[in-house]
Amino acid sequence: MSIALRDVRKSYGRTTALDGLDLDVREGEFFCLLGPSGAGKTTTLKTVAGLERPDAGTVEIDGRDMRDVEPYDRGVAMCFESYALYPHRSVYDNLVSPLRSPRHRLPAAEARDRVGAVAELLGIGGLLDRMPGQLSNGQRQRVALGRVLVRPARAFLLDEPLSHLDAKLRQQMRAELKAIGAVRRTTTLYVTHDSVEALALGDRIGVIRAGRIVQTGTREDIWYRP
Ligand code: ADP
Ligand code: ADP
What we know:
With 226 residues, the chain is of the alpha/beta class. It has helices at residues 41-49, 91-96, 108-121, 137-149, 167-184, 195-201, 219-223; strands at 3-12, 15-25, 30-34, 56-61, 64-65, 76-79, 155-159, 187-192, 204-209, 212-217. The strands form two sheets. Strands 6-7-8-3-9-10 form a six-stranded mixed sheet, with helices on both faces. It has a four-stranded antiparallel sheet with strand order 2-1-4-5.
């Protein structure tokens, strides 16, 4: 899936979150949006997911204008930094529910297999019977990421998905995320304020400041810039 934003503007009251943002994410690439807190990263993702409506400008997915397309018809799956899990459902039920919703009902056996595979990949296979309240922050964050990765989406929108993990786990998960992207060739738009993370993960990186993209390039372009 390709994603294109053209001159997108979005304000909250007197705060300008997006100030003429232009962004191109190509089919199958792992694109990192890098910038400081408040730069407009989350607003950008929400605009792509259809959870926020631009005041001006256009969002296109595969060349199609998304203006009148509902969030669940956009083919994207988004992971929020403030991960919301169902507190009264087990980890397994949290992971399987996106696959059993009325709009995307997968056969039970297929749903179970997908959940098992993603849980193994994220190292939470042993936690499936627990309740969210019995997990550490890092484990909860991996479950939230799992809820996104199980979806048969054509693009993943990930908002600081590793921010609550310790350094070792974060490094391990980076490698796994990169591998998932490479195997599935799912377009990934990944938000972070951490330049090490962006350089490690991104096929390309877009630097965002004050609601605009100020630089886009490969890691070499960004890294070696004087
Ligand atoms: P980032 O993800 O880069 O930290 P955000 O997209 O969350 O940035 O926010 C961009 C700007 O918009 C910030 O100044 C933020 O305070 C403001 N903002 C974001 N969401 C809201 C909201 N719902 N109401 C008011 N201001 C908001
Ligand atoms: P249920 O309530 O049936 O368990 P969800 O609340 O997980 O289902 O999701 C309801 C619908 O909203 C889903 O069919 C899905 O298309 C959409 N949706 C939910 N979460 C996300 C997400 N993180 N990214 C994209 N779409 C989502």
